[in-house]
Design goal:
This protein has five helices and two strands; from the N terminus they run αββαααα. It is mainly alpha-helical and about 90 residues long.
Length: about 90
């Protein structure tokens, strides 16, 4: 996933778009988890797409978002997540 805002906007304008859809993504070999768009944009550091989900769709920032934001290393996304979530000890 990259930070292609123009393409993502086009994708979100389709009738079938579901901001809460979970995608299967093999972030690591043994991963069997599904992740939301906002989770994945946090992980990949795609700040423009992250902002679109927050402003247009009011996507919730979860603990997963916060954890992934640190992995993605985008300061702006990390700051945004820290406004709504507190790091846990895991």
């Amino acid at each position: 996933m990259n930070n292609d805002l123009e393409r993502f906007i086009s994708f979100t304008e389709r009738e079938v778009f579901d901001k809460d859809q979970e995608l299967e993504n093999k972030l690591y070999e043994s991963s069997t988890d599904n992740f939301s768009f906002i989770d994945l944009y946090c992980y990949y550091g795609a700040v423009d797409c992250f902002k679109l989900l927050r402003t247009k769709f009011k996507s919730e920032i979860t603990q997963t978002c916060l954890q992934f934001s640190f992995l993605g290393r985008n300061q702006e996304i990390m700051s945004g997540c820290l406004k709504y979530q507190t790091p846990n000890e895991e």
